[in-house]
Amino acid sequence: MENMTELLPNGSIVMLEGGNKRLMIYGRKQLLLEDESNQEGAAEGTMYDYIGVFYPEGYISPEYTYVFNHTDIVEVIFKGFEDEEEEEFKHVLRNT
User: Fold this and answer.
1) CA atoms of 76 and 32, how far apart (whole Å)
2) Region for 57 from its dihedrals, namely left if φ exceeds 0, alpha if ψ lies in -120 to 50, beta otherwise
3) 65 phi and psi, to 5 degrees?
4) Using one digit for the tens of pLDDT, what is the confidence trace for 20-75?
5) Measured between alpha carbons, how far is residue 88 from residues 9, 34, 55 in Å?
6) Which of 2, 50, 54, 76 is packed most tightly, with the most Cβ within 10 A?
7) 24: Cβ–Cβ under 8 A, 6 or more apart, which residues?
8) β-strand 73-78 against 65-68: which pairing, if any?
């Protein structure tokens, strides 16, 4: 497993602990709001490292989006695209 102090870029494909379906990350540093708490164990007002959707299906509906943290990832299957803009954005995220 790679250094987990850095957030993975959008587009990364991961497997979560206890998971049986791969997820694609499409957002980072997600604050779960009251109406979004459709996931067992997800607490309203909590900041999560990632939000993801099933891979390869992608976005289906809000009921099929999942928030999770770095520590929940057991395997990085594919690391998303990184460039200068991504590196600048990671700097912003570190301060969030």
Assistant:
1) 24
2) alpha
3) -115, 145
4) 999 999 999 988 876 555 566 666 688 999 999 999 999 999 999 999 999 999 99
5) 12, 30, 27
6) 50
7) 11, 12, 13, 52, 53, 54, 55, 56, 58
8) unpaired
Which residue do the tokens 């200068």 mark?
84
The phi-psi region of residue 45 (left if phi > 0; otherwise alpha if psi is between -120 and 50; otherwise beta) is left
* Domain ranges (residues) in the chain: 13-94
Handedness of CA 44, 56, 72, 3 (dihedral sign): negative
DSSP calls for 37-83: --STTPPTT-EEEEEEEETTT----GGGEEEE-GGGEEEEEEPPP--
